[in-house]
Amino acid sequence: MTAFRVALVLMALCGLAAWQVTVIPQSLMQMAVGPVLAPAVIVTALSVLALLYGLSAWRGRQVDESHAPDQAPLPGANARMLSLLAGGVAFIALVAPLGFVIPGTLCGMGVARAFDAPLGLKSALVCGAIASTFWFVFAQLLGVGLGPALPWLI
Description:
single chain; mainly alpha
């Protein structure tokens, strides 16, 4: 796929995301920062980046190297992709029975493994701390319904 076609696909996805931002219901509470602000800012930034990429591709400054003979995938690419997907699937499958923190930790470990981090105690502790902090900030401080951190801490 040429770089310009990729840019067109990215712009179409940004248009879809912009439409989704418009259908987010407004909060019933009067807040200076509502539920639409952060997604709108992110979609706007991504749209600007897609537009800049499209302009760059149209001017011929983006090179399609996907078919170059010396651009073989790095060794272990399939294993990295599988660990990334396994982390996401583990989170989706386990968040209801185990709460947020344990599946979030497993998902983080899958992502870390996809970036060649060794699986071990250090990885589990770091990912657990990130998942716990994320849950605390969003569930406790901001009131986002993420469910319990752990099922026995309801």
